[in-house]
TrEMBL record:
Domain Peptidase M13 C-terminal: 160-242
Keywords on record: Hydrolase, Metal-binding, Metalloprotease, Protease, Zinc
Pfam families cross-referenced by the UniProt entry: Peptidase_M13, Peptidase_M13_N
The name this protein goes by in its record: Uncharacterized protein
């Protein structure tokens, strides 16, 4: 593959850019990541994370959710049906923290790579077999909470909210210095990683997503009066920081 890329370099259109030199180790690493995602994730988890880290951040995120519910309960312009709906969405929000527990179980990892066909001279079919079987078995681990997205961003510094699933993803790569450490005092943990978690949770209640419930259906209790009150608060905040 490396030789192939070098051969076609001069024939590629101008908008296609290849590095001046394609390093074999870099190229192979990037190819291995999606094909052997569970194994790459397992190595990363074993080298850089502990169950205590995941547990601590999960508890912290749940505490932040509870406090957000308290805040919503005190919003004066929420009528009772809307307040109940917004609180329910916050309580139903799923938290995907760091990595799935099965990724560090050797027995499970072995099962994921069973029945995969890898044959010399059949590169394309081998790649398809690996990708198809691993994806199918990863989803099968827990059909109600597929972890493939979390695994794909495990080694990237990312965190995000998924509106269609009312779910917050916090990548495992974020849960290390300088963002987080078990040795940090609790105020630093909440002020650092807690701020990130709270930020992602609140994406579920921004000016667009607050109109949707936890199933990503339009919230029937969100009416024109609620929308105007919401915009009034936003304008107040904007004016405060721009004046």
């Amino acid at each position: 593959m490396i030789n192939f890329l070098e051969e076609i370099r001069d024939y590629l259109p101008a908008y296609v850019r290849l590095p001046a030199t394609v390093m074999r180790e870099d190229f192979c690493t990037e190819q291995i990541k999606p094909l052997f995602l569970p194994v790459v994730s397992a190595v990363l988890v074993q080298d850089f994370f502990t169950p205590e880290t995941k547990s601590k951040v999960f508890v912290m995120a749940e505490n932040i959710k509870k406090q957000i519910v308290v805040v919503f309960d005190g919003v004066p312009w929420f009528d009772e049906p809307l307040k109940a709906a917004v609180i329910r969405k916050a309580q139903d929000m799923k938290l995907v923290i760091a990595y799935p527990d099965w990724v560090v179980d050797p027995v499970t990892l072995d099962k994921i790579y069973q029945n995969i066909s890898v044959n010399r001279g059949e590169l394309l079919f081998s790649l398809i077999s690996i990708r198809r079987e691993t994806l199918r078995k990863i989803y099968h681990q827990n059909e109600t909470e597929p972890w493939i997205g979390a695994l794909e961003i495990l080694y990237k510094h990312r965190e995000f909210y998924v509106p269609t699933e009312n779910k917050v993803n916090i990548a495992g790569s974020v849960l290390q210095l300088p963002s987080f450490s078990l040795n940090f005092p609790t105020p630093m943990q909440y002020g650092g990683m807690g701020t990130t978690v709270g930020h992602e949770i609140m994406h579920g209640f921004d000016n667009i997503r607050i109109m949707y419930d936890s199933n990503y259906k339009l919230e029937p209790n969100w009416n024109s009066a609620a929308n105007e009150s919401y915009l009034k608060v936003i304008r107040c905040l904007i004016n405060h920081y721009t004046s």
